Model the fold of this input.
Amino acid sequence: MVLALDFIGVTKRFPVAGKREPFTAVEKLSFHVGAGEIVAVVGPSGCGKSTILNMVAGLDGPTEGEVRIGGERVTGPTRHVGFMLQKDLLLPWRTIVANVEFGLESRAIARAERRERAMRELERCRLADFAHHYPHQLSGGMRQRAALARTLAVEPDIVLLDEPFSALDAQTKMILQESFATTIAETGITTVLITHDLSEAVLMSDRVVVLSERPGRLVEELPIDLPGRGDPMGRGRMPRAHDYIDHLFNTLHLAERAA
Amino acid sequence: MSVNVLDADAASGRTRRRLAAANASLAQMAPDIALTLAIAVVVLGAWQFGPPLLGVPRYIIPTFGDCLAEFGRMVAQESLGRHFLATLWVSVVGFALGSAFGAAFGYALGLSAVWERAISPYLLTLQIAPKVAFAPLFIMWFGYTAWPKLLVTLLIVFFPILVNVLQSMKTVDRDLVNLARAYNMSRAAIFWKIEFPSSMPALMAGLRIGATLAVIGVTVGEFVGGNVGLGFLITYGEGQANTAMVFNAIILLTVIGIALYVAVAAIEKRLLHYIPRATH
Done:
């Protein structure tokens, strides 16, 4: 099943110790992510990206408004959502396959089936040969692929990727963007890609949501009208992709801020 | 099926790698062992021939030979084996109980911020109080039995383990806990799958410290009361101006401490195999 995600007038405030004014992370945020769509969220640092992630994952509720998954209001962690951070969050004491099984352990699934599903995901992420290695024996890129396998093993309807490539070197990053895009295209899962990297946003998504500086408000929604979503490298060679990137660059006033 | 084959492959691969690593490290260690042994020969030689050369009497520093002779006499006439085993037994049991209680309290307080705040001033007080000073008190309470020694040992081992475990519970990666929460895991599952294994390195570090402290607890307990154990032999030897006996008892206490430490280190190496070790 593939589900849509909606933010409807979402505001999130946090109380600040020793201050009467609460801290507003995001304000009156509304946007829609269609079923099977990949939407990239970009914005300056501190625009409330991790707050957005926590609210979709059901770890934190909005102060005002609501977050809906498949039309249903999110009130706590659900089995619909898988998320992945910049850190791979692999448990160092578990082998890679046991790490992939981790998300399945809170569900009523027999051990043998768990192992089977984990191996299938590792196959898909081309890590089957490393199933019985420990995380410290793998490179950063492989560990991030293992994290994707863990995320997909729970068969989520929505995947949240929070800067999954930002800790990797430039070449590994390109290879991994390609491999993630292919995998996500295969599964057809609704995806929210939170990123700092404007070209990554353009190359990997169907639409880019631009947020303002704190508190995060919606500045622009930019549909990316390019073919080949499953192939970021191919998209990168299209001149129009660079027009989109330039446009985002201007929207975020990066040139003025650097001056 | 393919999974089982992979398992077997990985297992035999691991064994091969481990064997290869063992051989390599033995080869590397050979010069180190030779050097260590050479130092031992020099020290023992200095001990044997130094004091007589400098005119130090044997009731101040008995030579290595004197200590060996006294060791034989202690085995034959003072039932050294019985004293040694008594001390060993209290060390091991006291260490095990102190560790178990320390870890249990550490995890319990780590799970409850309220209780941790409520109890920590008392814990700090108890931690600062010199545990060995409790020994006479315990003798007044429990008489000349094994209990006072066991209690002092337990108490002295308890705190470093509690503090280490509690600290590690407070520094567990929040993102890992959130990941587990997002997967709908229960509080108990989060503890057993994330927090407990995360705290392992800190627990093992606490156990190492505890292993070295356990012997101190037993020794003080035996100083103060009773007529058995290596600590008792030290006070007995002192009364008779039998310096060699005191030397021997100290050496045997050290042997017990080393044995405990080595056992903990071996368990740690097995449990924490997944942490890449720095190579020099």
User: Anything to note?
Assistant: Chain A has two domains: 5-80+159-258, 88-155. Strands of chain A lie at 5-14, 23-33, 38-42, 64-69, 72-73, 81-84, 158-162, 190-194, 207-211, 218-223. Chain A touches chain B at residues 54, 57-59, 77-79, 81, 83, 85, 87, 89, 91-93, 102-103, 105-106, 115-116, 119, 131-132, 134-136, 154 (CB under 8 Å). The mean pLDDT of chain A is 85.
